[in-house]
Each structure stands twice: as C-alpha cells, then as structure tokens.
Amino acid sequence: MPGLSDSQRCIVEFERLDRHMLVIAPPGSGKTHTISQRIAWLLEQGHAEPEQILALTYTNKAGLELKDRIAKRANPHVHASTMHSWAFDILRDHGTEIGLSDGFQVCDEFRRADIIRLALQTAGYDQVDDIEVTQVGKWIAQRKGNPGVDPMQRVSFGADTMAVVEESYRYQLRDQGLLDFED
Fold it and tell me: Alpha carbon of 13 to those of 34, 79, 81: distances in Å?
C-alpha cells in the first residue's frame, strides 16, 4: 500500500482479527490515513463487512476527515464518527429504554453554568462568581463519575448545601429534558 511507513503498514496489515484496535500517535502522524487504509485492507481481504466496522475518533474535525477518507478509499457504509456523536446516536435511538425523553438534548457548558447558578440559588446563594460555578460543576462531574465517593474537588460550600445543589441540578436537567456530558 503506497504512502505508508513501515510502522503504519504493520498496523494496516496486522493479522490479529479477534479484537479491536486502538491507534495512538501524535497529531499529524498519519492516524487517519492509517485507520482508513486499515479499514480498506480489512474489507479488501474479506475479513469484515462494512456494518461490522466502527471507526471512532475524538474531535469533530478528525471525525469528518475519517468518514470522508473511509468513504473514498474503502466503503461509504462503514460507520465513522466521533465517540460523542456515536454515543448520542445510541441514546437517541434507545434512550427511551433507559428513561430518557424522546426530545432530550445535551446541555452545553453555558446552559450547565446557568443551571448550576439556579441550583445554588435554590440552596440560598444568590451571588456566586464564575470560579465557584466552575468548582461546583467539577464537583458534580466527579460525583457522577464515582457515586458514593466524596469528590476531590474543593468547593466553598458545606455538605448540606452541596446535597441541595446536586438534587436541584439533577431535577433541573430532568425537568428540561437535558443530559450533561457526565450522563
């Protein structure tokens, strides 16, 4: 395969087919090219069908580039996207099975900050600065990521206040049909 270094060629033609493959390399090193070539090789060799391949990347730019290269080089029916887009698609298709509303949305950082401010107001704090909102957001994220474990993020509020804030935050998300990135 032209345009591949020896290490890229090893990745593309790696014969172990019974497991997934993760390609980690610095920016500009040819990951997208290597992955699209790997997918083309898998299809050309008859090792997989397009619907059996899932190609995920992290950034939107890389996701679009990966999808475009796979469509041109391999097959337009291979699913290629960002991890977040793929997870969102799964939630959109199957979210009602886990109690999500049909029209749910993912809360962006600005809306999340507003919800945290409202939660703090519910707890009796009308005047909070951006640093406190950020701290509370990190606290909530750590709490969601490790339920039952005290978050390491320091906040300017006591445990009772944070219990009220957390409950209000979760209620507001549910009430507005929102998910945050930790969900």
Answer: 10, 20, 23
State the Cα–Cα distance between residues 9 and 37, nearest whole angstrom: 9
Query: And the tokens for 37?
Result: 């070539």
* Cβ–Cβ under 8 Å, residues 77 and 51: yes
The letter for the amino acid at 104 is: F
Distance CA 119, CA 115 (A): 6
- Mean pLDDT over the full length of the chain: 90
Tens-place pLDDT, residues 66-81: 899 899 888 889 999 9
> DSSP per residue over 66-127, as a string?
HHHHHHHHT-TTSEEEEHHHHHHHHHHHHGGGGT--TT-EEPPHHHHHHHHHHHHHHTT---
Whole-number Å distance between alpha carbons of 51 and 87: 17
Compute the half-sphere exposure of residue 2: CA atoms within 13 Å on the CB side of its CA: 1
